[in-house]
């Protein structure tokens, strides 16, 4: 088609209306409103109301299930879920119940809006951001009309179910606040070490004697009575893990550290004071230990002092001695809280 042909086509008269040009971008207007079944059948409206109410009630039940799962299911319990595999039973229950609660509220709200609230479409001209008083009055009037059409005042059972769901479900998040930090106790300041507990070699599960530890060696130990088969073994060792070094007494710089040891044998926490990684890299010439996670370095000959890296505290030391049977044993707990700093930390 030539350029002239195109211009001519633009001015062709509309069919049935000779002489009038066609506007290809004319506003087609809104389609005729088609009422829904719920708009004309009160039984259908009641059915939708019951469905929405049931969804909100299920959300409340799921929220209570979330709280019950948190309280009743042990954190160490593991279950097999096909096809995921072995997962934490508590985590699975928490995720499932919270997901069901949120899903039921969302689906209930959508079903309410699509079947019971007004679905009439209105065209509104754009206006300046600062609305004149008459427009504001119209907005408030429209809002009140929308509340009336939504059935909040008339359908009390469904409204109360929604209010109950919106009240109970947020309690699920409040329960989780318990895990944001320790309870107001001293749990993080205490470990399984108490006076009289022998130091048990992690490799052979035998109690340690001074002659078992050579100068320049690094040995890992656990408290007497702690077994790998224990349900809370990992939790206990996360605080009680111990590393033992033997340094020539003349090389120990900190007198207090020497007094807390036995003939150059010193016992320190194995847990890095930065973010809690296990320390295992020992340089016997310098008596330094290195955390492999972020390279925090501690001097075991100088009271576990931080000499490099992001750690903010020296390694806690365990005071040890030799008991009547010739075994190394603890004289108490660590001198400072183990691991990273936290809000309630006293030192």
From TrEMBL:
Predominant place of localization: membrane
Domain Rieske: residue ranges: 260-329
KW Hydrolase (keyword) present: no
Membrane topology: Multi-pass membrane protein
Compartments (UniProt record): Cell membrane
The protein's role, per its UniProt record: Iron-sulfur subunit of the cytochrome bc1 complex, an essential component of the respiratory electron transport chain required for ATP synthesis. The bc1 complex catalyzes the oxidation of menaquinol and the reduction of cytochrome c in the respiratory chain. The bc1 complex operates through a Q-cycle mechanism that couples electron transfer to generation of the proton gradient that drives ATP synthesis.
Name of the protein: Cytochrome bc1 complex Rieske iron-sulfur subunit
Gene source species: Streptomyces silvisoli
